[in-house]
Amino acid sequence: MYRIESCACKNQDWKHKSGRNETRAQPSLEPELQSSTDTMIKLSLKTAFSTLGKVQIQASHLLIEKDQVFNQFLLTNKGRLSTKLKLAFNLSFRRANCELDWGRGLTRRGFAGLTNGVTFPQRSNCRVILYQDAHHGPKFEPIIGLGTDKCYKPRKLWEDVFRAINGAKIFIYIAGWSFNPKTVLVRDPQTDIPNAQGIEIGELLKRKADEGVAVRVMIWDDETSSHWIKNQGVMRTHDEQALDYFKQTKVVCRLCPRLHHSFPTLFAHHQKTISMDCNTAELYNIAGEDSCGDREIISFLGGLDLCDGRYDTEEHSLFQTLNSESHAHDFYQINFAGATLRRGGPREPWHDAHACVSGEAARDVLDNFEQRWMKQCNSSHLVPIKIGTCNKDRCHGIRNWNVQVFRSIDHVSVQALPDRSHTAEQSIHDAYVAAIRRAERFIYIENQYFIGGCHLWEQDQHSTCTNLIPVEIALKIAS
């Protein structure tokens, strides 16, 4: 079992100038399974729009496990040698079980997070709250010890979101794939938040904006929806509805397209983040936990948009909640034709995971929002935010998380990218790979989308999906 360890090109960027245009190209490594007996290593030199050429090397030539220097002419897409393009590079292999991080876990050998191709470093002294679904019932009490005499007490996501937004004094920045201003966050009749039940998120944000809080909402612009013909779009993300809702208000709402030179309607912004200033005592002490009480930045992020159909509990009832406050005004079903509230359902259940982070990682989430806003919106709408992190001495014992923020994003949607990449950051994928390699006893992955890599299939290798996660799992199992 072998793994590609490194591939370093002498010229990191290849530039081709034609008139006033300049094109950058970068090398990418693509292992290709040509037969059951051998593996071909393919090194491609690509621009943002095309492949300039390729080099193919038999993996069996590299099994001596030493660095080897190659200096070869590139093959064109038609399989011919190009006399104008020549690539010099080093390629080395190392056995998977000899990799320093193989099976070492995330706590051994001083793991400091990912360092290559990432914008945000690993942060220490952070706090994390983990959530399952938008809400949970009173019987949801998983027995999870915290290493002391205390047990983990689950929190209610959308109620915490309401508390945090309601308590903000300076700013509230929201980014989402979908956003419905009519969404009600607090629906439980037994809630302990006064005057919160039934309030729509749009009304809450307008009220905070009227109080002087800078409220910014950035939603993916679904190209299939239309304001003029009242078309809600294929994905029904309420983007045009939200834009109309906040007109003539102090809430600044912007729609951001996910631009692509070939397929402008097939790509989306999938980030779901909420950042705001918060009095941590007001949020954290509800669960009887210690907090220093400083006003600081907190950020929610994960898989749940603030829109219809997302409110659910661990019971995921299909019928019993249709006449309750939970879903009487929020029936969502896109999988069964003809299923409606009037016909008695069934509703579509919704499960997702989410988190709330504080500390320097929360600022990283905010920075990501600001980078996107400055790239695709008007940067003058952003306000200066001069809020420090919690005092480490006073927060000792509750700030024991190391957190690193990852993302999948390109230069079209964001201003700043890691130096290694000129066009895109894929640190989410890289983080999966690093975690799988370091796994010691088990791997648990929960994700709405799970896409493999076709470059290792016997068929359809020409497709451009080259994710490594499935093959990394297979290598880990086989080892």
Automatic annotation (TrEMBL):
The keyword Repeat applies. One of its GO terms (cellular component) is plasma membrane. Gene3D superfamilies: Endonuclease Chain A (3.30.870.10). GO terms for molecular function: phospholipase D activity. GO terms for biological process: phospholipid catabolic process. The keyword Lipid metabolism applies. Keywords: Lipid metabolism, Repeat. This is Phospholipase D. It comes from Asparagus officinalis (Garden asparagus).
